[in-house]
Amino acid sequence: MMLRQQLVLVFGISLATDPCTLRSCSSEAQVSWYCNCNLTDVPLVPKDTVKLFLTYNYISQVTATSFPLLEHLLLLEIGTQYVSPVTIGKGAFRNLPNLRVLDLGNVKILHLDLDAFVGLPSLNVLRLFGNDLGDSILEERYFQELVSLEELDLSSNKITRLQPHPLFYNLTVLKKVNLKFNKISNLCESNLTSFQGKHFLLFSLRSNYLYETDKKAWAKCPNPFRNITFQSLDIGENGWSTEKVKYFCTAIKGTQIGSLTFGVHIMGSGYGFANLKNPDVDTFAGLARSDLNVLDISHGYIFSLNSLIFQSLGNLDSLNVSKNKINEIKNQAFFGLRNLRVLNLSSNLLGELYDYTFEGLHSVIYIDLQQNHIGMIAEKSFSNLVNLKIIDLRDNAIKRLPPFPHLASALLSDNKLMSVVGTKIAAMQLELERNWLANLGDLYILFQVPDLQYIYLKQNRFSYCVKRHNVIENNQLIYMDLGENMLQLVWERDLCLDVFRALSKLQFLHLNNNYLSSLPQEIFRGLTSLKGLNLASNLLSHLSPGLFPQSLTILNLSRNQLFSPEPEVFMTLSILDITHNKYVCDCALKSLLVWLNHTNVTLAGSQSDRYCVYPPAIAGVPLSFLTYEGCEEDELLEELSFSVFVFTSVTLLVFLTAVIVFTRCRGICFVWYKTVTKKIIGSHPQVADQSEYKYDAYFCYSKNDFEWVQNSLLKHLDSQYFKKNRFTLCFEERDFLPGEEHISNIRDAIWNSRKTVCIVTRQFLKDGWCVEAFNFAQSRYFCDLKDVLIMVVVGSLSQYQLMKHKPIRNFLQRSRYLRWPEDYQDVDWFLNNLSCQILKEKKVPKKASVIELQTVATVSHG
Ligand SMILES: *[C@@H]1O[C@H](CO)[C@@H](O)[C@H](O)[C@H]1NC(C)=O
Ligand SMILES: *[C@@H]1O[C@H](CO)[C@@H](O)[C@H](O)[C@H]1NC(C)=O
Ligand SMILES: *[C@@H]1O[C@H](CO)[C@@H](O)[C@H](O)[C@H]1NC(C)=O
Ligand SMILES: *[C@@H]1O[C@H](CO)[C@@H](O)[C@H](O)[C@H]1NC(C)=O
Ligand SMILES: *[C@@H]1O[C@H](CO)[C@@H](O)[C@H](O)[C@H]1NC(C)=O
Ligand SMILES: *[C@@H]1O[C@H](CO)[C@@H](O)[C@H](O)[C@H]1NC(C)=O
Ligand SMILES: *[C@@H]1O[C@H](CO)[C@@H](O)[C@H](O)[C@H]1NC(C)=O
Ligand SMILES: *[C@@H]1O[C@H](CO)[C@@H](O)[C@H](O)[C@H]1NC(C)=O
Ligand SMILES: *[C@@H]1O[C@H](CO)[C@@H](O)[C@H](O)[C@H]1NC(C)=O
């Protein structure tokens, strides 16, 4: 029901956008747009025009001859002229016999002939707001012939009295009268006899000066609304105190009103004005026979809800006391509200809820308590409200939840919940955003909430996991938002990897902004219905095939650090967002580029949001500008969209090239050189004695560097990644025997490989296993006189940082290390150099070994 209201609202707003902005000074499809056209007269428009817009012009006079006969015209907007006054003459609209809607609003000063509106028998809606009109507009016979009038807007004028002309007897279909923002001051002297017998859907006296009626006048005030009924009556914003409201309710005794609005008002003592009265048992007593359904006393200063104040409103369906200063709800405050279904107490100053607080609300289904300061809730506050379906406790200070009856929605965002252990709750929808939940183990508890289908856990503090329950099968959950937490901290320690295991009905999962730098391979196992997965704004650089469930169709990987994702992982999708990643535009990206060009997957974002980040020379260039024809030669060229420019500057370039060829283009030159030598000399250099070693090289690096090592080295060297790579490499993720002791894995790898390549990074130095492996590889130098260790330094590590570690210090004293190039174009050269090092057999000079042996001995003791 609420959803539909919202939809209508949204729709209404979109319709209400100023039609004048659409087109100007022309006619099309029976609509004539003539706003802002410097007109001083009505323009000539096609005879079949249905809608005519003439606002924002200089038309100062409309007479009987202004309009040609326009029999189809239904809507005319001629308000808001740049000149004033505007004079509307006798029979000004009589050539528009079928007009339904006439808008003359906001003219500032409007001079109306008494017969201005003759000849408009079909007019339904007349808008005269903001026109400086006085009492005469109601008291004279202006609307005499408007027998179809349903809606009259006279808001923002200068009407001071409510004594409409007897002609209103004849306006039998009048349903809506808007008198907002006028100056009607005395309701008691109103004479609404000509409104008698009418049923108004909407009658607004909001924001007049109705407070001026004095106490004595009220005492003998006849009911101004006698023999009138209202669907909705708005008398808010009239500065009424508790006493005035009481007089009014007494005076209108018996008048049937569906919905009555007093807010904004000044009832109540506020915070500390004890002399001002809060409403009490008498205040609304006069409404007993009005059959009120909706009462709105929001926006005021009520501090205390006294006992029995609503006892005479037995038919009330909805009560809105939001935005007051309610701090105290007395015993039996809601007694008598047998039929109340919606109670709005939002934006007050409530701090505690007691067992008796909601006593008497047998039918209530929705209580809105958001934006109070509720910290304490007594055990039985809600448990007797058997019909309660929605509880809104957002934005309070709750640390512990009381028991609830079986709910549809529990809205608990923006509180201080640190744990859900021991919570007794059953709900279809659970909102827990922005609480202080830190233990991911709480999810195993929440998954046991009966009927739970939607859970919102955004912006909590999930960062560790202690499991108290196990996964239960057959979970009903459909939607879960875990965005903006710290799940990386949980999963990097291999904790609670089975947290999603039983969610076989889950369709949408948000894991965005969780600092995730990698995903445990098994983490999504069990999510057999998952359709949408949001991994945006994490730190993911690599995705392994088989990670995502087969059912997945929508995947958001925007703003991660993907270098060159393999398209295989995207095969099941229909919508994919891979914008703003860190693409490395080399030939490894080819498969993705080919896929992007052909796929029928909908790619979110624009092409310019998918761009290269490395190499620096083409950083920022969209992927769609790249070609990969040269990729047989391991080179990716930017499409020559600059070719014209290149030709005109060719002379200059020849000179410049010569100068900077080495500094700038050494990478490309090197590739050319390789290609040429390859052609001349023939195939790869022979790999020496295959039989002796199982592997050419063991790559030793920190686990945290795996993605980088894989993308930068393994993919370019290891023959299992690409056939044309020449080496058989050994590395932990692939080649270590599971279950074997880690250290013996490392030893075996070193013994079975011709060379050991240590990728020394900051992470490497922090990792005890790495340094141990380094030490072990180095020891072979002494034991069997073979120099098997190749050290590659990556990143900005200073000499000092390296020297701190003894094994490395020893190595550096005798040997040189390789440094990963800072300039992207040097990478090929570097890889070639590394390949040579792997192939080279280095014998150890005998003399040296004896001396160094001692050093090693001390190292292993130390
Ligand atoms: C209206 O007059 C103003 C100023 O004379 C001019 O700038 C504007 O273009 C005119 N508008 C039209 C629609 O003729
Ligand atoms: C006001 O009320 C009296 C009777 O109470 C009635 O005679 C008179 O016509 C009413 N109308 C106006 C506009 O004063
Ligand atoms: C109401 O309508 C009738 C018939 O059309 C007419 O005779 C009468 O004068 C009208 N009354 C007023 C007050 O306009
Ligand atoms: C209410 O007003 C109508 C129209 O003026 C009249 O016919 C009817 O008798 C009135 N009823 C009462 C109870 O005054
Ligand atoms: C008060 O609540 C009712 C329904 O609960 C709603 O229609 C009305 O708009 C609310 N008033 C304000 C000022 O929000
Ligand atoms: C309660 O009133 C506030 C405004 O005062 C409004 O925003 C909210 O939607 C209302 N709640 C319900 C359930 O109508
Ligand atoms: C993916 O997430 C980003 C960042 O939150 C967002 O801007 C983008 O609209 C999302 N893409 C899709 C297709 O929903
Ligand atoms: C993209 O595909 C079209 C044919 O579908 C082909 O003509 C074009 O060369 C391709 N572009 C790239 C950059 O591969
Ligand atoms: C997308 O293309 C593949 C073949 O490339 C085809 O099997 C699949 O049905 C297509 N999907 C849609 C939704 O068109």
From TrEMBL:
Main location: membrane
Signal peptide: 1-16
Gene Ontology CC annotations of this record: plasma membrane
Subcellular location: Membrane
Record domain TIR: where: 693-838
PROSITE patterns to which the protein is assigned, alphabetical: LRR, TIR
Keywords of this entry: Disulfide bond, Glycoprotein, Immunity, Inflammatory response, Innate immunity, Leucine-rich repeat, Membrane, Phosphoprotein, Receptor, Repeat, Signal, Transmembrane, Transmembrane helix
A GO molecular-function descriptor: transmembrane signaling receptor activity
GO biological process: inflammatory response; innate immune response; toll-like receptor signaling pathway
Membrane-topology annotation of the record: Single-pass type I membrane protein
Transmembrane feature ranges: 640-662
Family in the record: Belongs to the Toll-like receptor family.
Quaternary data: Homodimer. Interacts with MYD88 (via TIR domain). Interacts with TICAM1 (via TIR domain). Interacts with UNC93B1; this interaction is essential for proper TLR5 localization to the plasma membrane.
Protein name, as recorded: Toll-like receptor 5
